[in-house]
Amino acid sequence: VQLVESGEGLVQPGGSLRLSCAASGFTFSSYYMTWVRQVPGKGLEWMSTVYRDGSKTYYADSVKGRFTISRDNAKSTVSLQMNSLNAEDTAVYYCARGFLSGNYYYLDSWGQGTQVTVSS
User: Fold this and answer.
1) Contact, 12 vs 108, CB < 8 A?
2) Which burial class, exposed, middle or buried, applies to 101 when counting CB atoms under 10 A from its CB (0-12, 13-18, 19+)?
C-alpha cells in the first residue's frame, strides 16, 4: 500500500491550493479516503472523508464550505481543493485509507504528508 501526497505550497491568505494523493498497491475503490492535518505540536485533525464511490462527502466544520474532497477511482487518486485559506490552515496534510468495521471508522494507511503554509 502506498499513498503519495502532492501539492505542497506556500499561499497567501484568501488563496487556494489543491492537494492530490496518488494511491497504489490496493483496490482503491474499495476504501473510503480521508484527509487529516496536523499542526506542529498539536494533534491530528480530521478534515474530510469521501465514500468509496465518491457519492458522499463529509467535512469538519472548520473547513466546510471552503474545502472540497473528490476522488477518481479510475486513476486511484483523491484530491482536496482548498479555498479561502487562512493562517489556521497551515499544517501538514495527510491522506489516509479508511474502512468501516462495526460502528467504527479506521484509518490504516497514511501518506507521508505534504506541507501547506498560509502566510503573507
Assistant:
1) no
2) exposed
